[in-house]
Amino acid sequence: MNFNAFLGLFVLAAMVALALLIKPLRKTMGLLLVILGGIFCLTAIGLVIGVPMILVGGILLFV
């Protein structure tokens, strides 16, 4: 794993962590994850991705 990939992942994680500290962004991310998880659940392969997205989105919505 080269330095640019590591730096990109670090910046992405920092942005997500910062967004989770702000309540309206946390609610928005939760709703987005629930909606996208529901769309992914329409296919059999998407169940593997969709169900965890719905669970994490629900937690973010009600925290």
How does this model look, in words?
The protein is an all-alpha fold and 63 residues long. The chain has a domain of 41 residues. The protein contains three helices and no strands.
Largest sheet, described in full?
none
Question: What is the mean pLDDT?
Answer: 87
Beta-sheet strand percentage? under 5%
Our count of helices gives: 3
- What's the β-strand tally? 0
Oligomer: single chain
Shape: flat
Question: Helicity, in percent?
Answer: over 70%
The secondary structure category is mainly alpha
Distance between the termini: 35 Å
Radius of gyration over C-alpha positions, nearest whole angstrom: 14 Å
Give me the strand/helix succession.
HHH
> Which regions are unreliable across 5 or more consecutive residues at pLDDT < 50?
none
Which keywords apply here?
about 60 residues, mainly alpha, 3 helices, about 85% helix, about 0% strand
In short:
With 63 residues, this protein is mainly α. It is built from three helices and no strands.
